[in-house]
Amino acid sequence: MKTISTQLLSYSKSKSFVTLFVGLLDPGSGSVRYVNAGHNPPLLLKQDGSLEHIESTGLMAGAFDFADWEEKTIDLAQGESIFIFSDGVTEADRSGSGDQFGDKHTEDIALELKDRDPRDFIEEMAGQLKQFMGDAPQSDDITMLALKRI
Q1: Domain count, the chain
Q2: Domain span at residue 97?
Q3: In degrees rounded to 5, what are phi and psi of residue 131?
Q4: What are 56-60's contacts with CB under 8 Å, separation 24+?
Q5: Contact of 74 with 34, CB cutoff 8 Å
Q6: What is the pLDDT along the chain (150 residues), one digit of tens a residue?
Q7: pTM assigned to the model
């Protein structure tokens, strides 16, 4: 993360920064080592029907030369999923109303879809997001990734 942030600082004349989640999954053990650089919290979807937020472990990359990030680890049990998404999902606007898709709506749908395989999960989430937005123009990137330990 330090290298990424330093590169962003050196190349950016406009003081740009990025939020990002970087993880390394051990498929054998289900262990995920990660750093969350100011990204909105991914969701850990548990088998018991609950969810946990995977909180930020440091500032955005490229924002400050003094930034530091803590590496953390979570254990992904069989059948559990991680849903990583950009703020373009939660901040998507409904056509003409000013209503946003929102954190709660995103979490509710993610819990409904937790038993689906990752491809179906993303397709259904994207479909519900498009339906919500209607004719509203997309104003931000919409990026989603789902991982499931089987």
Answers
A1: 1
A2: 2-148
A3: -60, -45
A4: 58/1, 60/17, 60/18, 60/19
A5: yes
A6: 556 655 555 565 556 667 789 899 999 999 999 988 878 999 999 999 999 999 877 766 666 666 677 889 999 999 999 999 999 999 999 876 889 999 999 999 999 999 999 999 999 999 999 999 998 888 889 999 999 999
A7: 0.87
